[in-house]
Amino acid sequence: MKVSKALGLKESEIVSLVGGGGKTTLMFRLAEEIPLRYRVVITTTTKIFMPPQDKSPLVLLGKDLPAENDLNGYFRSDLRPTIGAGLLKNNKVTGISLAQLSLLQNYADIILVEADGSKGLSLKGHLDSEPVIAGSTTVLVVVIGADILGKALEIKYVHRPEIVSELTGRKMGSIIDAEMIAGLITHPEGILRDSPSNARVVTFINKADRLEDPGEGRRLGRLLLGEKIRKVILGSAIGIDPVLEVME
Q1: What residues have CB less than 8 Å from 46, skipping those under 6 apart?
Q2: Is the pTM of this model over 0.70?
Q3: Domains along the chain?
């Protein structure tokens, strides 16, 4: 099954990806999966590495949005452009404002947004200002890297582990298990505290194919399901078959 099908994507969607452990990879996987009849743009409200230009040409915004004809030219060429506000020396694209994101809805059928940064790590403790989620988000995808299970709660594996420790009550250096992850994700002051009320919240447990015991992924999924998270996908963003299981 494709990830886009598991998410139930349709026309006029804003998909915001948060968390850690494969957001960018999953975002570009979605861009490839969505049928070409849909006008799709990729963007960020934080920072992402510049994408391959042959697959997703970069469009930098000034004070104005790009001309509709320019974007339509990319769409006619079966390309999904990446929209950013600027380019940094480390080859990263800086994010657009929430106001610009709202205006992009006039140009595209589906907008894919990386709304969080985790320094490439599979789990993250969030500051009060993070993540940067648009209120118009229709699908909020919380990404977790399954490879974090069994690792120690320390800076080597977790972005801002001290926040994870504070929210979950676990000591620094503790072994990360399903209960700790679920406690972090579902905490009232955690990643979902400002999730848009109308958004469908889905957790994507990435790298689930690497688990020695697949039952651990399912156990985490069961712990995550609840009032806010109504669907959990176990899968691999780089896998031939990216969706291994859907839990609802």
Answers
A1: 95, 114, 115, 116, 117, 131, 132
A2: yes
A3: 3-38+112-247 (3.40.50), 40-108 (no CATH)
